[in-house]
Amino acid sequence: MLRRQARLRREYIYRKSIEDRERTILEKKQKLKNALDDNNQIPTDLQKDAVDLQKTLDWDDKGADGLTTHIDDEYKWAGVEDPKIMVTTSRDPSSKLKQFAKEMKLIFPNSQRINRGNYEIKQIIEACRANDVTDLVILHEHRGVPDGLVVCHLPYGPTAYFTLSNVIMRHDIPDVGTMSEAYPHLIFNKLTTRLGRRVMNILKYLFPVPKEESKRVMTFANEDDFISYRHHVYKKSEEGKDIELSEVGPRFEMQLYQIILGTIDTKDSADVEWVTHSEVSNESNTSVDLTGIISIQRDIEEIKQNLEGGLKKIDLENATKDLVKSSDLEVIVTTIVKNLFKEFTSSIETKIDKKVSEVIEEMQEKIDALSIENENLREKAEVAMKSLSATKKELHQNERLTREAITSSNYNEQYSRKNNIRVINFPWRERQDLRADFISKVKRDMNVELEERDVVAIHRIPSDKLGPKPLIVRLFSSDVKRRVMREKKNLQDHVRFYDDISKRNIELMKRLNETEWFSDVWYFNCGVYGRISDGLQLKFNIFDDIFLRLRQRK
């Protein structure tokens, strides 16, 4: 599943890169064609490629309504398969948001509501993809009031973000009608621009194709970039001439503020297709707000009227006859400024000293609190270190005891097998008397006389290899075993005798052989031995450090 998703994602990104390259070439051709048709100067960025582009213009026709875009891939199954919608909320939703989510589930046919819980967005997206969900609708709130709607198209986007306002739910609408479950007819008003058509596609493909006789109608009407949503059912009058509309709710206004070319879990890395508060419709109000300018003009007129009765030059001359000279005025002003500056300096110094004292006192309190906290942390660290030391000591003791127990267990197991022989390729037949056949085989091939009491037990053991299953033979004593093992070289018919070695000793012998430091490795009398090239012979335990033993030579 993960490989398939990764492959489909790579294919989608590859198609999108080709589409972007073709769109760039088409835009350059269109600019060049417009410049040639209007007899204008060719744009600077096109002068280098103008000749090559002009050659291809003769072969271009009007064709379809433009290049195929990512929308063709995103909504290629729209109308063929019914959409499958999943509705959820932000974390810790209020009761009002939960109720709103239930009503939104009733709006979308074939939809399901999932409780958000502690799930992350990425987990929800992966679950939706695994269950072939086409769109994920996420509702947000602010202080218990629904204020956000996110529509994420799956599996690879786009994702549209809307703000919600004036949300009125079903139980708040007077004389609310009965909710129909029929597939609704959709009405889109004033969504005629390129962005408007994009928004219309995102909303339209949330609903399956309705039947002609469906009495359910949903309206998305754009006015000044606010999309008003209304939900009605209608019925014809008894005469069949009039139609009665009944609102079933809910109702709200939507405003688009972002579209990204990806799913919501890839918001940080996905390309942004559109993000502003620009107009969604070409019929939105584009007039300039002139109220501020009109107000300024009105204030200017009032100022002019007030100045008409003001002082004139002759009035000013008469009034200034008794004023002081400029030199005296300079002395007075200088004295006043100096006094004001002294007072200001003194006031500033006082305030600064007071503020510094407050800051020092506050910082000292914080330092004291940090010192106390640091002392508490140090005491806790000491307690933790003591506990850790005791735990380590106990762990080392347990490890030592465990190794001793395993070593003793391995020795006891090997000692119990001391008189055992493992026999390979011993012939098998129906109703076989293994004891008699074994005694006969030893006497015939090895010339060793055994009595029935010398063979204490004999049986076959399971094996995954082809051929006869191996035998385990338990002999009466070590002397009997030594007499048999001394003559094992005389065995015939591919039959082989081996010591019955425990699993841990076999692994130890394998480790010794893998080091390539030993010329011989063998088992003898419940022990494993190794000999290096200079003749040094050592006995090894299952937990021995082989390199350390060789370096110490003991």
Automatic annotation (TrEMBL):
<keyword id="KW-0175">Coiled coil</keyword>
<dbReference type="GO" id="GO:0042274">
    <property type="term" value="P:ribosomal small subunit biogenesis"/>
</dbReference>
<feature type="coiled-coil region">
    <location>
        <begin position="360"/>
        <end position="398"/>
    </location>
</feature>
<dbReference type="InterPro" id="IPR044281">
    <property type="entry name" value="IMP4/RPF1"/>
</dbReference>
<dbReference type="GO" id="GO:0005654">
    <property type="term" value="C:nucleoplasm"/>
</dbReference>
<dbReference type="Pfam" id="PF04427">
    <property type="entry name" value="Brix"/>
</dbReference>
<dbReference type="GO" id="GO:0034457">
    <property type="term" value="C:Mpp10 complex"/>
</dbReference>
<feature type="domain" description="Brix">
    <location>
        <begin position="83"/>
        <end position="265"/>
    </location>
</feature>
<dbReference type="GO" id="GO:0032040">
    <property type="term" value="C:small-subunit processome"/>
</dbReference>
<dbReference type="InterPro" id="IPR007109">
    <property type="entry name" value="Brix"/>
</dbReference>
<protein>
    <submittedName>
        <fullName>IMP4</fullName>
    </submittedName>
</protein>
<dbReference type="GO" id="GO:0030515">
    <property type="term" value="F:snoRNA binding"/>
</dbReference>
<dbReference type="GO" id="GO:0042134">
    <property type="term" value="F:rRNA primary transcript binding"/>
</dbReference>
<dbReference type="GO" id="GO:0006364">
    <property type="term" value="P:rRNA processing"/>
</dbReference>
